[in-house]
Specification:
With about 375 residues, the chain is an alpha/beta fold. It is built from 15 helices and 13 strands. The protein folds into two domains: about 180 residues, Rossmann fold (3-Layer(aba) Sandwich), CATH 3.40.50.2000; about 190 residues, Glycogen Phosphorylase B (Rossmann fold, 3-Layer(aba) Sandwich), CATH 3.40.50.2000. The strands form two sheets. The protein has a seven-stranded parallel beta sheet, sandwiched between helices. Strands 10-9-8-11-12-13 form a six-stranded parallel beta sheet, sandwiched between helices. α8 packs parallel to α9.
Length: about 375
């Protein structure tokens, strides 16, 4: 029995890679792993419990490198969460801790090292967050997703492995024709998948809503993940255009608050181009081998989305459009340019596939087991 303690949270970008790694344990017939999770309470606790992961909670605190009134609250909470972590880590006494970073991870990592428990951390961004930079000093091994990230950590214990992707996303690929039939799309028209992350993206959504008529009239079909709370605006946009382009609109635009796993895989398979933010979604775009237009979120911590976008674009797989260049004229021109040059699109698809590291979860899981067996 190997006891593995997971930590890290705040968003799906933290939790889903943790789950992707735990799925790899199921493929190891000679290994028996007991999983638990320690971190602040969050919306993903139910998902963890569904996967038979025991969830323990500590106080939520956020590390900041800038002045904020919230620091007067979070600094005392950080000390509280550290002592809570000491208690829970002692009670669980894992053989190894795997941290994805994010709010709440630092006190757990610190407590683990207090008890001389090996810690493995993983970072998804080209520029790591403050939590992982601090955790890097205490980590036994560090897995990163971009080559540029290595310089932020000790080279002797850092490896570029990519970002873990859940097996339910990677398994069972669809052909483009099947995927377009799933969404009732025209198999002969170009298709764009629009993603803004789990919370949507106001900038990208506004572009689609304001230019939907132009895109549809240019024979471009759209699968649009608008994010929670934005579906009504999408429906209102469709209704306002109904009289003008009617039937063509009905078959050429589909909007969803969030795509479930089956929809998500079909949407990627159906698409010629992906228009997206540049968080951890980059690695799923690469896995499906799709050309992309990336729009970094300006307010992202450490400007990591911009760094991610340009790191990925250097592979030849993507085009980056920052806020000042994200105008209707430039975006529409870039979409038309890509769709009208099959050789350019194909080269970007090959570059995306070459960038992809589908074995990231497996490599991290094997490393966790290696350190777990040493205890």
């Amino acid at each position: 029995m190997i006891r593995v303690l997971l930590t890290g949270g705040g968003s799906g970008g933290h939790i889903y890679p943790l789950l992707a790694v735990t799925e790899e344990f199921e493929k190891m017939p000679d290994v028996n792993v007991q999983l638990s999770y320690l971190g602040p309470r969050g919306p993903f606790d139910a998902i963890l419990k569904e996967k038979d992961i025991t969830v323990y909670s500590i106080a939520s605190s956020k590390l900041r490198r800038y002045f904020s009134v919230a620091n007067f609250i979070d600094v005392p909470k950080l000390f509280l969460s550290f002592f809570q972590s000491l208690y829970w880590v002692y009670k669980i006494m894992p053989d190894v801790v795997f941290s994805k970073g994010g709010p709440g991870a630092f006190p757990v990592v610190l407590a683990a090292r207090f008890y001389f428990i090996p810690v493995i951390i993983q970072d998804s961004d080209a520029v790591p967050g403050l939590t992982n930079r601090l955790c890097g000093h205490f980590a036994t091994r560090i897995a990163v997703s971009f080559p540029e990230t290595v310089k932020y950590f000790p080279k002797s214990k850092t490896a570029v492995v990519g970002n873990p992707i859940r097996k339910e996303i990677m398994e069972g690929a669809f052909r483009k024709e099947q995927a377009r039939e799933y969404f009732k799309l025209n198999p002969l028209r170009s298709t764009i998948l629009v993603l803004g992350g789990s919370q949507g993206a106001a900038q990208i959504n506004s572009f689609i809503f304001n230019n939907l008529k132009v895109l549809i009239e240019d024979d471009i079909q759209i699968i649009h993940q608008v994010g929670p709370g934005n579906k009504r605006e999408a429906d209102d946009t469709v209704r306002s255009l109904q009289r003008e382009i009617g039937e063509q609109l009905n078959s050429g635009y589909s909007s969803f608050e969030l795509l479930d796993v089956l929809q998500y895989k079909n949407a990627f398979s159906a698409a010629d181009i992906v228009l997206s933010r540049s968080g951890s979604t980059i690695f799923e775009i690469a896995f499906f081998g799709k050309a992309s237009i990336l729009v970094p979120l300006e307010s992202a911590a450490n400007d990591h989305q911009r760094a991610n976008a340009y790191s990925y674009a250097r592979s030849g797989a993507a085009v980056v459009l920052e806020k000042e260049n994200f105008t209707p004229h430039i975006v529409l021109s870039k979409i038309k340019e890509l769709l009208s040059h099959a050789d350019m699109l194909h080269a970007m698809e090959l570059a995306a596939k070459n960038f992809s590291r589908p074995n990231a979860a497996k490599e991290i899981a094997e490393e966790i087991i290696t350190f777990g067996l040493r205890k």
